[in-house]
Amino acid sequence: MAVSEQPVRPAEVRKPDTPAPRNGRWSGYTHLLMARMKELRREPEVIFWVFVFPLLLALGLGIAFRNKPADVTSIVIVAGPGGQDALAMIQRSPQKDSIRADLLDQASALQGFRLGKYDLMVEPDGNGGFRYHYDQSRQESVLSRAEVDDALQIAAGRKDPLPTSTTSSSEPGSRYIDFLIPGLLGMNIMNAAMWGIGFALVEMRQRKLLKRFVATPMRRSDFLLALTSSRLVLMLVEVGLLLGFGVLAFHMRVLGSLLTILLLGAVGAISFGGLGLLTASRAQKIESVSGLINVVMMPMWVFSGVFFSYERFPAMIQPFIKALPLTALNDALRATILQGASLGSQAGRLLILVVWGGISFVLALRWFRWT
Amino acid sequence: MGTAIQCRDLRKTYDGKVEAVRGLSLAIETGECFGLLGPNGAGKTTTIEILEGLLEPTAGQVTILGHTWRENARELREWLGISLQETRLSEKLTVRETIELFASFYREPRASGDVLDQMQLSEKADTWVGKLSGGQRQRLAVATALVGNPKILFLDEPTTGLDPQSRRQLWDIIRAFQQSGGTVLLTTHYMDEAERLCDRLAIVDYGQIIAEGTPADLIERLGGHHVVEFAVSGNSNGAALEVWRGLPGVESVRTDDGLVCLNVREPHLTIPALLDAVDNQHEQLLHLTTRHASLEDVFVRLTGRHLRED
Which of A25, A136, A148, B162 has a 20 to 30 A CA-CA distance from A128? Predict the structure, then answer.
């Protein structure tokens, strides 16, 4: 029986009051995207985690690690003969503003030094000289020893043969907040894509909503495209908010073009979207996908230079770190925002993102379960 | 009228072990309301999901409106309206947004407003799905199936967990769809629903059809016209059962939870004879009811179990 010969069409029998609409090619996609945006807007947690939380993090870390006017080192001087002299010498030295010295008995001084309360312990040797206790592995301890030694030598009458002077710099572009904001941006793009795509898909699978959708003529590619598009819209807002915040609150200077930054963000969001899709391809329960998402993201939080430079890790693992997608995204964002790099100069890093996203996407499509 | 849904020797084995469907064949005519009746775990959902093209059968063929899923999936999707057993639609979308979203997937959907009116959801059009009652959610689930203007409606346990009034509302909607020329396939474990709603039904147990026909036909063939249930003071042992079987008009005898159930053709002949027999045995009649046979009786007769073991 040919279907076109069906004698009765339900709609014709019912004679609807309103003319039935006819849908075009993109009707499903636009409705899916609109529905997704409405859902996100009606979810207060989304607003907080996507928009407010990164700003709070930037604010908190920006304040905690703001460049202090001058680095003050805390030292302890062991009380006893010569101890009072040392204190007096430091207080009349040119370095007096950057050294805060306490006078304590030997036991308390040692205790404070061991706990890291003091960077340096100064002990009179009984012959008019001093002995320094410092920790070679602690940078501030090493600096403190040099500083205090200079202070004591100058106070004792040392004349430097070469006149030198210094100016201190706290230029926008080299401060911690400048390092931090692009890193937060990259991390946020990763978080949002992994949760917004991976978690959302598994939740819909668990609710049998995915199954209900594929029981309609909906194009599966439209569905995934709409989900990705909703992330891109959010990404635009996030980038605007974080950069705007950096500029307004911390006088950050954005050297690269906004278009390049947004393009990088989009490539990052799509790449992590592929990774999110892969993570969500099989999981049936939101509990299991939450674990998976964290397992995937954890190494990148640590290694990819979000909060501190990955140069601190041993040289041996640097190639591994540089191959991570978040490292590529963070490096590209920093190069663009802080140094004004062009899109072309970031081709290598873009390639890393595209490869990660592409491989994930292909695997995800092979393994993905709609039901 | 042609055949709307046809399947032959359908089999589904999960993980190579669990046989959910074991050789099931069906032919459902256009314009029919067909029911799959059976207890939970009988394979009804697996069967309907294979017919809906959501599950791949291990073996067997499915033809819907003359087409197969392998070749014409996209077209078939346009023609089917499906309500799954449990779908939790997005809670933060309104009823209207949900219906419009589903409408957007079809080439020629019905106007969302008409569907809202028909499903009596117009008052709730701007309410979030999360705030709806069970009956309203179920009506919305059926509305998302109807908005595509389908030729066939698949409903998996459409009234499970609903109050009597909501169930009746849904029955009216299903009847209206059928009257406008649509074909309906539904699964249920409620015998009254199957009896009232379905033109024909298949009783499914352990993945196979154990009886098929119109509800009246099934009851007449397998249930007896009437059921006389009684209890007597003595033990109804085997010898006693033989006595009941010998009463005039009795077609079959079984015991169920302390009651003796007789399937009888003419209760007015059987009951006086029964009372005499009890008298002759010097026993007391503790309980006596008579009622029309139902699909439940058919099921119990066929399987020795009840449809709903609660």
Answer: A136
Listed residue (B187, B208, B188, B184) closest to B60, CA to CA: B208
In terms of Cβ atoms closer than 10 Å to its own Cβ (0-12, 13-18, 19+), residue B280 is exposed
Which residue of chain A has the CA closest to B56? A371
Q: Which residues of B touch A27 (CB under 8 A)?
A: 104-105
Question: Which CATH class, in words, describes the domain spanning A73-155?
Answer: alpha beta
C-alpha span between B121 and A303 (Å, rounded) = 53
Question: Do residues B41 and B30 touch, judged by C-beta distance below 8 A?
Answer: no
Structural domain of residue B186, as residue ranges? 3-214
Q: How far is A215 from chain B (nearest CA, A)?
A: 7
User: Residue B142: its pLDDT value, please?
Assistant: 93
Record the tokens describing residue A295, joined without a space: 């397992």
Q: Does B132 reside within a domain?
A: yes
Q: Are residues B257 and B199 in the same domain?
A: no
Query: Which of A4, A14, A221 has the highest number of chain B CBs within 10 A, making it the mutation to test binding with B?
Result: A14
B273 within domain boundaries:
yes
Domain stop point among B173, B188, B214: B214
Mean pLDDT by 10 residues, chain A (371 residues): 43 51 88 94 85 87 69 85 85 82 89 88 86 86 88 85 73 77 92 91 93 94 92 91 90 90 94 94 91 93 90 92 95 93 92 95 90 82
Is the pLDDT score of B189 beyond 80? yes
Has residue B238 been placed in a domain? yes
- Confirm or reject contact between A31 and chain B (CB < 8 A): yes
Q: Which of B2, B128, B144 sits opposite A1 (nearest CB)?
A: B2
H/E run at residue A68: none
Q: Which residue has the higher pLDDT, B310 or A136?
A: A136
CA-based end-to-end distance of chain B: 41
Q: Chain-centre distance of CA B290, in angstroms?
A: 25
Residues belonging to chain B: 310
Interface contact B100, partner A, CB < 8 A: yes
Quote the mean pLDDT of chain B: 89
- Strand-pair partners of B260: B230, B255
Where along chain A do its domains lie? 33-64+172-367, 73-155
Gyration radius of chain B over CA positions: 23
A209 and B144 within 8 Å at the Cβ level: the answer is no
CB contact under 8 A, A38 and B93: yes
Put simply, the answer to whether B149 touches A27 (Cβ < 8 Å) is: no
d(CA A28, CA B78): 13
The interface predicted TM-score of the complex, written ipTM, equals: 0.88
